Every structure is written in structure tokens, then in C-alpha cells.
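Suppose a colleague, Dr. K., hands you the sequence of a protein chain of 93 amino acids and asks what its three-dimensional shape might be. Before reaching for any lab equipment, you can write down a predicted structure in C-alpha cell form. Begin with the sequence itself:
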Amino acid sequence: MLDGTLLKKISRGRERAGILHVLYWMKIKKCPCGEIPDHLCIGGRDKDKWMYVYAPCCGYWNVEFRSGYKMLDDPELMEIAIEEWNEAPRSSE
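The predicted structure, expressed as C-alpha cells, is then:
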């Protein structure tokens, strides 16, 4: 697992819609749009088997991943999402 510090949750309204915004002090790889995101967003509902992670810079490219049936506010879920984001193949590599 990655070492990260949870800073804060953003936007309660979007959290109710199944999107959780969390800022982490972790290295996040560049988005295919060319931006380096300062945070990632998770789409899904609590305890979904599959969720997706995307960067707010474009909202177009996302990575689906197995969540382990975790709650959206579980810090370990964001660690899993960041790992999957960073390991996803990009055409620029």
C-alpha cells in the first residue's frame, strides 16, 4: 500500500451522488490529457464491488477497479484507486 495522509473530503453534495473527492499527499501519474492532477475522484456507491477513479482535470479518462467492497470514506479505498490509476497503461508511455 502507499503511504498517504488524508487531508480532507470535498463537496458533500457530490458525495451523496456517489462521488468522493479526497486530497492526498501522494504521487499521482499524469492524466492522458496532459495535466498532473493534485487529487483523484472515485465514482461508485458504498460497498460496490467495482468503482472507477478519474482526475477532475478532464473527467473523460477513468480506470475501473475492484474496491474490495469498501466504504467511500475509507482511506484505504483511495490508496487502491491511486495504485490502479498509476498502474493503468497510457499511450504516451
